[in-house]
Write a structure and sequence with these properties.
With about 80 residues, the chain is α+β, with helices and mostly antiparallel strands. It contains two helices and three strands; from the N terminus they run βββαα. The protein has one domain.
Amino acid sequence: MSDDGVTTADSAVLACPKDGTAMVPVSRRGRGNMYRCPACGGVFLDLEAVRRRRAGQPPVWAPVVLSIVMSVGMTLLVRRLRRLR
């Protein structure tokens, strides 16, 4: 399996997998990972850049677990404080 269409992370220009022409970024401010080929009109994602960006983020389920733990903890605290009065 070769990476003909994907260049290194230093290069901002990707080659179109269909015809090899240079693609232009589609997203705002050039920070996104979507590219459009001016020749064939195809839209492609740079999946390696997406993976690199997500590698530094916490898991998706972490905020959900934190919210559940905090809700249960606060509920137990309030019930205990009400019993003391």
